[in-house]
Amino acid sequence: MKALLIEQHETLSASIQDIDASRLPSGDVTVDIHWSTLNYKDARAITGKGKIIRQFPMIPGIDFSGVVHHSEDPRFHVGQHVLLTGWGVGETHWGGLAEQAKVSGDWLIPLPQGLSTRQTMIIGTAGFTAMLCVMALEQGGVMPESGDIAVTGASGGVGSTAITLLSQLGYSVVAISSKPDNKDYLLSLGAKEVLPVSDFNQPSRPLEKQRWAGVIDTVGGTVLATLLAQVNYNGTVAACGLASDSQLPTTVMPFILRNIRLQGVESVTVAASKRPAIWQRLQKLLPDSFYQQIANEITLHQVIEYANKLVNNQATGRTVVKIR
Ligand code: NDP
């Protein structure tokens, strides 16, 4: 089977190789992969920009969808359509950028009704995470009538999907982006306004004028710190990413004087029992137009080139990889 293999000798190298399927790791379900994707984490793993992979050789790819090829798990049968996101696949267990994967049945979910294998990967880990961020705002009591919601890293996979979901739910969304050329794209997803990230990436005062009922942040660093200082009394910030910086140079002031909540969002180990309902919500909320607007399709042979584009902030939307 063809796979993207990352090896670590003196330096890290990534190449497409023919691998005997008998080398696949242990697992009770073997899946013929149809679609995988390029997430920020995959791009950092493939380019070596992030210490994502701990065991070599590794097939990256933190998500995939496809058809069951062989199953020793009674919950899955040959020919069944399935998808996987997270669980350390593509990090500690061979992942989705290959023609086959062998995984635990506990990590797979049957394809949600109403979605194709391609659509589930246009959503992928990024879209699943965007839904978790929206749910974090809801759990914080942020409602469509509460006020404006800021979304950072707006052009990316999480950002683009979060804008679409929020707009479909009736929220007023302000996209914050480093790419002026993407203004029309972000407005077409449902943002009412697009602001340059340069308005937010300078150190701010501990408290600034209140302007956001909620924030979905994918970039971290000074941008997140500035937004925390601008969140309304009782507001909620859902933080899931570090595309700009993993540091957070903030103070306690917005927390103790404005009662705001900073909610972390993690998608990798969300309980299997909770996942089908989250996917059903994504299926219901995302309009058909979303899949056309956001998806760029590439082949396995283009993955390394696109991984470099992604880590250099030259990509927009979701990059889906057609495996077969
Ligand atoms: P993408 O690469 O698709 O998008 C990231 C976006 O962030 C870019 O499109 C760009 O948007 C912006 N950006 C990139 N570099 C910088 C920079 N140096 N400074 C400021 N903005 C920048 O990534 P994803 O959407 O897939 O992921 C976004 C983040 O969320 C990543 O950090 C990822 O690791 C994290 N993540 C976390 C998950 C979790 O479980 N917690 C799951 C999935 C993702 P623009 O040009 O519009 O500003």
Number of strands: 15
Cα Rg? 20 Å
How much of the sequence lies in strands comes to: 25-35%
Distance between the termini: 11 Å
User: Total helix count?
Assistant: 9
Helix content: 25-40%
Quick rundown:
The protein has 324 residues and is an alpha/beta fold. 28% of the residues lie in helices and 27% in strands.
For the structure shown, list the relevant keywords.
single chain; 324 residues; alpha/beta; 7-stranded mixed β-sheet; 9 helices; 15 strands; binds NADPH dihydro-nicotinamide-adenine-dinucleotide phosphate
Structure commentary:
28% of the residues lie in helices and 27% in strands. The longest helix is centred in the middle third of the chain and has 23 residues, at 117-139. The strands form three sheets. Strands 3, 4, 5, 6, 7, 14 and 15 form a seven-stranded mixed sheet that branches. Strands 10-9-8-11-12-13 form a six-stranded parallel sheet, with helices on both faces. Strands 1-2 form a two-stranded antiparallel sheet. The mean pLDDT is 97. α2 packs across α3. It is an alpha/beta fold. It is built from nine helices and 15 strands. The structure holds NADPH dihydro-nicotinamide-adenine-dinucleotide phosphate. NADPH dihydro-nicotinamide-adenine-dinucleotide phosphate is lined by residues 39-41, 125-126, 129, 153-159, 177-179, 182, 197, 218-219, 240-244, 265-268, 310, 313, 315.
